Amino acid sequence: QSLERAKAQLSEQVKALSASASSAEAARAAADAEVRRTASDSEAQMRQLRAQIEQRDDDKGRLEAQLRTAGAELQKAQTRLATLEAEARALSTSGAAAQSKAQQDAQAALAAWREQEASLRAKQSELESETSALRRTNSELQSQLASLQATQQ
């Protein structure tokens, strides 16, 4: 009879151990699934950050090209101004009537040039500001990407 009791106890212990092993296996499977989900989420975040960095780089390149164009336009305008000033000086030695008309034309052209120069300088300043902001954003995104990569490893 004590042998029967011992057998029953052993049978209960085997059942308890089997249930415990099943529970541990289920917990391990759940943990594995969570690790896969977290890794997938991290990879998606990294892809998104890389796409943002590429977009910022594209924006930065576009703004830098606009800045170069604005600089070239400013240089052309300055060359035109020098030409107009030379023409104005040359005309100042000619006849009074021609001088008056030419000076008026030169002054009007000079005023228009100064207005264009101010506009170009404002645009150049705006582009430099946007480029600087993009550089900061790009740096922040690079930092986030590095952090995500470090976390994933």
Describe the structure.
This protein has 153 residues and is mostly helical. It has a single domain, classed as Helix Hairpins, CATH 1.10.287. The protein contains 2 helices and no strands. The protein has helices at 2-91, 96-152.
| Percent strand | under 5%
CATH class assignment = Mainly Alpha
Instruction: Name the assembly state.
Output: single chain
Instruction: Examine the coordinates and then state which fold CATH places here, giving the name of the CATH topology.
Output: Helix Hairpins
Largest sheet: none
Which residues form runs of ≥5 with pLDDT under 50?
none
Give the class from helix and strand content and strand pairing. Answer: mainly alpha
* Overall outline: rod-shaped
Q: What's the tally of helices?
A: 2
**CATH architecture tag:** Orthogonal Bundle
Number of domains: 1
Q: How many strands in all? A: 0
Distance between the termini: 59 Å
The radius of gyration is: 38 Å
Instruction: Provide mean pLDDT, rounded.
Output: 88
User: Helicity, in percent?
Assistant: over 70%
The SSE string, one letter per element, is HH
Jot down its keywords:
96% helix, single chain, mainly alpha, 153 residues, Helix Hairpins, 2 helices
